[in-house]
Amino acid sequence: MSGPVEVTDAGTSPGATNPSAAPALVVSTSRTTTVGAMAVRRALPNRGRRTVGAWCFVDHAGPITVDGNVRPDVGPHPHMGLQTVTWLIEGELLHRDSLGSEQVLRPGQLNLMTAGHGVAHAEEAATRPGGTVHLVQLWIAQPSATRWGAPAFEHRPELSRLELPHAVVTMLVGELGPTDPDAQVLGADLDLRSGSTTAPLDPAFEHALVVTIGRVMVEGQVATPGHLVYLGRGRAEVTLSVAEPARALLLGGVPFAEQLLMWWNFVARTRQEIEAAHVDWATDSGRFGRVASPLDRIETPPPPWVPPPG
Description:
Largest sheet: 7 strands, antiparallel
Radius of gyration: 19 Å
Oligomer: single chain
Order of helices and strands: HEEEEEEEEEEEEEEEEEEEEEEEEH
Helix content: under 10%
Low-confidence stretches: none
C-alpha cells in the first residue's frame, strides 16, 4: 500500500519544510484519501510540512475488516528516489517486486524496499476474509548521494525491542536517544501501557509522533489516530501519557537539507525527473522492471503541469 502523492499533498514545485530549531508542539490533522479500496489517513506530506527528517510520507490504514470489496491490494506501480517502510500492526500482506522478491509480512516484522533509480512492486492481501488489516506505510527520501543507485529489498523478521517504564519500544529504523554521528533517521513503534513514559531523543533530530491506536497525551495536547504531532528539534526526551493502552510511531531524523518534488509514487528534485519517470513507466521502458503479480498494473495520467496533447 503506497501513494499516490497528489497535488493536494505537496504542490507542483520543489520545496522543503523549514524545521523548527527548537522544541515545538504542533498538532496537525491527517488528510483522508483512498489507496486502492482502502481509506487511509495521510499524515505526510502536506502543504505545511513535507518532511520530518528524511521521512516524507506516512499513510495509516485501518483497522479494516477484509472482505470481497475492501482489501489492501495495490497493483504493480513504480517508485524512485525513496525507501518504503511497511509496518504491519494486524493481518498479513504479500509483497512482490520487480527484483523477484516475494515476501509475506506479518505483525512485528518490517519490509524495507530501496527504490533508487527505479523499482516496481505490488502489495496483496494475505489476510483471510473476515480478518483485520491495520498497517502504516512510510517513505524515507533518499539523498542525492544514493537516490540514483540500484534498487534493493530487505525483509526484517526480527526487530530489536527495549523496555521503558509503561512501554515496549520496537525499533524499526535507527535507535532511541543520541545516535552515531552517521545516523540520519529514527523510526520506532511505542506500545504504551497506562501511565507515563519518557523516551530519550537525539537533540540533533527533529521528531514527530503519529498515533496508531488509542489516545495519547503529549505536553497537555491530545493526539489520536489521524493526528501528526510535530515536536521540533532540540529535545533530549519526550513524555507521553495514556489512561488506557495505546500505540504510536515516533519518527525523527536530521532535517533533510534538499528540496523535494513529490508526485504520484516518485520523489525527485525537478519536474523533468518526474516527467521522465512517468514516460518510462507509461512506455514500459524497462527502467522499473516487471512484477509477477495477478493484480492489474496501475497506470496514471501525465503530471498535472504537462499540457494535454493538441
